[in-house]
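As a warm-up, study this chain.
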Amino acid sequence: MKKITLAALAAVLLAGCAAVQQRPVLYPNARLKQVGEAAAQRDVDECVAMAERAGASSGGSSAARGGVQGAAVGGAAAAVGSLIRGRNVLSDAAAGAAVGGTAGAVGGAFHDGEGSPVFRNFVGRCLAERGYDVIGWK
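Now compare it with the structure written out below.
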């Protein structure tokens, strides 16, 4: 059980590294050239903060939601398999929950950085009103 816990912890840490929020990429138009990269990034930060205050989620909960769903599915599947084979249901269910939770968290983390469409639209509009041209997200 200790090995499973360590493996789960390592996978969650890796998932955290994968969950990097994307940021808008600005076209080098006259406004960006006028204010410079540092000022433009401060404007991006302000627009992101405004979007979050307005309730537009950046999509940062996919890892947690995936972890909970994966733990539930993994635990249930392992418990059923354990019943069929006549093994220790609690031990197998715990192991299944650990593996499923880790897999769900890692999968969800890869989607975290994408951001919700509402969040992206909010930030894009905020930056457009400040004279910037968002050409994508990275």
